[in-house]
Task: structure prediction
Amino acid sequence: MTSTDQTSATILATHRYALESRFIGETFQIDVALPSPWIGQKPDHPRPVVYVMDANTVFGIAAQALRFLQNADGVPPCLLVGVGYQLEGPRRRRRDYGLLRTRDLTPSLDTGFHEILLAQRGEGPPPDIGPAGGGEAFLDFLIEEVRPFIAERHATDPADQTLVGSSLGGLFSLHAYLTRPGAFTRHESVGVRLGQQA
Result:
């Protein structure tokens, strides 16, 4: 049997938002996965929130893994919030992803790493993408803009907020833990727990 119908696939019980940051001057893609619909929890019940960096590449698998754990292993219902970039629009190209990540997820400028990125591209970055070292502004964005934005739209537990990252996202999570240890309840980096607030 042959079919020519094609539709876009979506992840069940997820929402996508666009959020412009005054700290960075970038419009971000914010993806939210609600708890597994089979758990049966009331929608207005405050939930823990897990913020995952690099949502363009890891949000789908993180949402499905979290729901599997909620269904099978008794992990409490929580929201998964993925922070990523709008890469398919007129302003950004998919090839800008590495430069955007480097700008936002690093705490300082490493000129050698920046030069490697430029050499890989064969051209300089777009003029509105700054160099590495924007981790503080990105942390301000998460705390001052993303968290209130999510809390306005979903019932969240402000006392149970986790920051997760791997690769440069893991570096960013470590930076957040060391510079603002009370901003998140837990920090996870490449599967290693960095700290937990009592």
About this structure: The two ends are 58 Å apart (CA to CA). Strands lie at 14-20, 27-33, 47-53, 79-85, 156-165, 186-189, 192-196. The CA atoms of residues 143 and 183 lie 7 Å apart. The mean pLDDT is 85.
